[in-house]
TrEMBL record, chain A:
<protein>
    <submittedName>
        <fullName>Heme ABC exporter ATP-binding protein CcmA</fullName>
    </submittedName>
</protein>
<dbReference type="InterPro" id="IPR017871">
    <property type="entry name" value="ABC_transporter-like_CS"/>
</dbReference>
<dbReference type="InterPro" id="IPR005895">
    <property type="entry name" value="ABC_transptr_haem_export_CcmA"/>
</dbReference>
<dbReference type="GO" id="GO:0005524">
    <property type="term" value="F:ATP binding"/>
</dbReference>
<dbReference type="GO" id="GO:0016887">
    <property type="term" value="F:ATP hydrolysis activity"/>
</dbReference>
<dbReference type="InterPro" id="IPR003439">
    <property type="entry name" value="ABC_transporter-like_ATP-bd"/>
</dbReference>
<feature type="domain" description="ABC transporter">
    <location>
        <begin position="4"/>
        <end position="194"/>
    </location>
</feature>
<dbReference type="InterPro" id="IPR051782">
    <property type="entry name" value="ABC_Transporter_VariousFunc"/>
</dbReference>
<keyword id="KW-0813">Transport</keyword>
<dbReference type="GO" id="GO:0022857">
    <property type="term" value="F:transmembrane transporter activity"/>
</dbReference>
<dbReference type="InterPro" id="IPR027417">
    <property type="entry name" value="P-loop_NTPase"/>
</dbReference>
<keyword id="KW-0201">Cytochrome c-type biogenesis</keyword>
<dbReference type="Pfam" id="PF00005">
    <property type="entry name" value="ABC_tran"/>
</dbReference>
<dbReference type="InterPro" id="IPR003593">
    <property type="entry name" value="AAA+_ATPase"/>
</dbReference>
<keyword id="KW-0547">Nucleotide-binding</keyword>
<dbReference type="GO" id="GO:0017004">
    <property type="term" value="P:cytochrome complex assembly"/>
</dbReference>
<keyword id="KW-0067">ATP-binding</keyword>
């Protein structure tokens, strides 16, 4: 099943064209790696897929209106003045929070779960943000540079978790300037082919 | 909606600076003013109300400052957009939470001080109600200014929402006169209540459009 | 361009005709246009938000400084006029106050547009503010009227006390039209240069630089 598809997407900012006539689709259980140099519009493309940014031309189609998408961008959306647990409680109800606890354990964050998020390192904050994405049990995961800031162990862990999600039929779209170990389609914004 | 109300009140109550700050400023102004003039020469009762009005304007401005900035900067707005598809509920719950946690205490302090400065006991409830309503109006308007300026500083927010706030101040002044002279109070309260309802319904719509533009 | 030369030739000529009241020929038209320019901007803002007409936003951006300027001229000339007639340059009168608020609104619009680097965002935010502002204008007028009748005895009123003599009304009328044409041509000039600067990457614009 095609979760989300893009048709002839063109985007220009202040009259400068960033990309032109892009078309692609992501099925459930399929990964899409968006590649490209700095400023090639990777993040913008993700935001267009999410419906946050409106493309200059073209259309984004979703399989259903309430397709459950979870997203992590450059900004972590973590409140510094709350603890990791409180941060997760902002979003999850009593049932969902149990899943989130398990993720805290898997990502090795259980020992800092009651400290203020401000005292966490950059990598730990990133992990926390990833937990929020994964624990939402989404149908489509959209990640912007998920490996930046993670150490080797954590990056391997993330690779593993993402592959697990893919095998469960979750769709995945992510940007990264390094080639990850996940097997997936590649969209190169500079070469403009899938 | 319930989730958002819970989330926003939890966030605000954990930010001591944004929550307690405005209340302290209100108290500070109201105490400092009588100390700065020679009370024996002036009839304090007559214009103490205008001090309350001005400090109400100031505190509601301080209280709403950065209302959306934090959520915009840390990416929470984008997350919220993915869940709710627009910001109407978020803005509405933010305003409700701000009015309940900051607006009502401020109104209470204002009413308390006006009481302490020679207003009849019977007027306490009137002043309290009046100040709550004005806070509701002002918070809506300043939230709009803040949504426009978002992370570009408070000055821009004031510049764009001050013209909107001035009629509220005039209305408030009028209402206070009617308390002092005891006529037409209920019609003004009704007017303010109506305005408050209309604004609370309309403003989140407009603010939502502004926020959408920002994250675009 | 015809209107520009026409306006420039006529407006000053008329202004000299009156003696002590001659500033009326500057003051009254500029106050009239202070609001008209704003209404024009509001129409453009509506067009920009509803139909996404880019040109409408450019027009707002070029009209706003002109509006601010003319409002300032209106306030300033009013002050100068106020010194001989009222003996003071400023009165907290209903009309002056609402004009001052209008001036603040113009400044707000300009500052708002200037603070964002993404010009398309700035256009949309500016349009939102302009539309809220136009709803606000009658409210301000009403409330300020209410306020000033409350606080001030009606000792001073700008109009009403003397009806204007027809021999003065005529040049006044012409000077209003003259200023109108001047503003329109000024607007055309400034929007021309602004549109060119915004569309400088387009082929058609390059031909006109």
């Amino acid at each position: 099943m095609t979760l989300v598809s893009a048709q002839n997407i063109t985007y220009s900012i202040n009259e400068n064209k960033l990309f032109h006539n892009l078309s692609f689709g992501v099925n459930s259980g399929e990964g899409l790696h968006i590649k490209g140099g700095n400023g090639s519009g990777k993040s913008t493309l993700l935001r267009i897929i999410l419906g946050i940014t409106t493309p200059t031309k073209g259309l984004i189609k979703r399989c259903s209106e309430d397709l459950k998408i979870s997203y992590l961008g450059h900004k972590n959306a973590i409140k510094n003045y709350l603890t990791p647990i409180e941060n997760l409680e902002l979003l999850f109800n009593d049932v969902e929070i149990k899943i989130a606890y398990e993720w805290l354990y898997k990502f090795n964050l259980s020992h800092v779960q009651d400290e203020l998020a401000a005292s966490l390192s950059f990598g730990q904050q990133k992990k926390l943000a990833l937990i929020r994405v994964l624990a939402q049990s989404p149908e489509l995961i959209v990640l912007d540079e998920p490996f930046v800031g993670l150490d080797q162990t954590a990056a391997d862990q993330l690779n593993h978790f993402l592959e697990e999600q893919l095998s469960e039929g979750v769709g995945l779209i992510f940007t990264s300037h390094i080639n990850p170990k996940i097997s997936c389609k590649v969209l190169d914004l500079e070469a403009k082919n899938v | 909606m319930f989730r958002l109300l819970k989330t926003e009140s939890f966030k605000l109550s954990n930010k001591l600076k944004s929550w307690l700050g405005p209340l302290l400023i209100m108290v500070l102004v109201l105490i400092a003013f009588p100390l700065s003039i020679d009370i024996s020469q002036y009839d304090l009762e007559k214009f103490y109300f205008s001090i309350i009005v001005v400090s109400l304007l100031m505190t509601s401005f301080v209280a709403t400052e950065g209302m959306f900035e934090e959520d915009f900067e840390d990416g929470s707005l984008e997350q919220e957009f993915l869940i709710e598809k627009d910001f109407y509920k978020l803005v509405l719950s933010k305003i409700i939470v701000y009015v309940c946690l900051i607006g009502i205490p401020i109104a209470f302090i204002g009413a308390l001080f006006s009481f302490a400065n020679g207003v009849a006991i019977g007027s306490f409830a009137k002043v309290f109600l009046l100040l709550i309503l004005s806070n509701l109006l002002l918070f809506n308007l300043f939230a709009f200014g803040n949504a426009l300026s978002i992370n570009k500083g408070a000055m821009l927010g004031v510049l764009s929402s001050l013209p909107l706030a001035l009629p509220v101040i005039i209305l408030l002044g009028r209402a206070i006169r009617s308390i002092q002279f005891g006529d037409g109070f209920s019609s003004i309260i009704a007017l303010m209540f109506g305005l408050g309802l209309i604004l609370s319904a309309m403003m989140p719509l407009i603010i939502s459009a502004a926020l959408k533009t920002h994250i675009d | 361009m015809l209107g520009w030369t026409w306006g420039l030739l006529f407006a000053p000529q008329d202004a000299v005709q009156g003696n002590s009241y001659r500033i009326i020929f500057l003051h009254v038209p500029s106050v009239i246009f202070a609001e008209l320019v704003y209404f024009f901007m509001a129409i453009c803002a509506l067009m920009h938000l509803v139909w996404r007409v880019k040109l409408a936003a450019y027009l707002i951006k070029s009209a706003a400084p002109i509006g601010a300027m003319i409002t300032f001229i209106g306030l300033f000339s009013g002050s100068i006029w106020g010194i001989p007639t009222w003996g003071t340059w400023w009165q907290w009168d209903a009309r002056i106050t609402s004009t001052l608020i209008l001036f603040i609104m113009y400044l707000g619009i300009l500052t708002l547009h200037g603070s964002f680097s993404n010009l398309e965002k700035a256009d949309r935010l500016m349009s939102i503010l302009v539309i809220i502002g136009v709803v606000n204008i009658p409210i301000i007028k009403k409330s300020v009227d209410w306020w000033s009748t409350l606080h001030q005895p009606a000792s001073i009123s700008v109009s009403g006390s003397t009806s204007i003599d027809p021999s003065m009304l005529y040049p006044l009328f012409i000077s209003v039209i003259g200023l109108g044409f001047t503003l329109i041509s000024l607007g055309i000039l400034s929007s021309r240069s602004y549109i060119l600067s915004r569309e400088k990457n387009k082929k058609w614009a390059l031909k006109h630089v």
